[in-house]
Structures are given as structure tokens and as C-alpha cells.
What does this fold into?
Amino acid sequence: MFYLCGPEAMYAHCLNELENLGVPRRRIRTEVFGPPKDVTAQPGWPAGLKADARFAVAVKGRGALQARAGETLMAALERAGIVLPALCRSGECSLCRTRLLAGRVFQPSGVKLRKSDRQLGYIHPCLAYPLEDLEIQC
Ligand code: FES
It folds into this structure.
């Protein structure tokens, strides 16, 4: 029995190699982490919003950047040189917890936000997608 646990790229590679070795699919168990390949196909994604729509993100005290609707906020931040603490990159560990000061984001159903985080406006940028211009504090 094989257990695969990790990011999607590793999962896809290992699954392919195990199949090449003749391991039957029923003997492979998986737990996949990371953002979905196509967030626009997720339940709850706003109808009509294209993945390539661009929004302005103001980062309090750190400048501003552009982010696409179809990429995680964390990816846009990292491209702009703003690196947050991160572990799971799947919305589960809370390490990247960031305050959303203005705007709305889409967070797929797998994101585990504490009740107090929801009440105080925190998000997990590793699995949050901008739906409009944002202002955040991190
Ligand atoms: S890195 Fe774990 S919740 Fe974002």
C-alpha cells in the first residue's frame, strides 16, 4: 500500500511513477494539498468572473500590487516580493493569516478559518482569490 501526501505536482508525479511500476490504483491512497488547478470551477465561484480579471491590492504599509482573480492572493504577494509565513498552502494551518481591511475574496470550501478570524475579517491568502480591489494588512 502506498500513501501519497503533499502538493499536487508531487502527487501527479508519484502517481504516474507508481502506475508505471504496475502498482494497482486500489493500493494507492492520497491526500492532496494546495490550491485547485482551476478555481473558477469550484462551487460558489461568482458567475461571469473570469480568471484573468485583475484587481488592485493595497498592502498597508508595504505598497500595492496587481492580482488576478484566478490566482491565490499569496501568489500575487510573492510575485511582488511580499512573502508571508506559510506551511500548508491549503488554507488549513493559519500560518499565513492576514487581515482583510476592504474588499471581498473567494475562499473555497476547504479553507479552515476560526470563528474569531471570520468575525474579525482574517483570511488565508494561500487559498483566497480576489473578487474586487482589496486592502489587506500583513
Ligand atoms: S499557509 Fe497554511 S493556511 Fe495559509
Notes: The first strand starts at residue 2 and ends at 7.
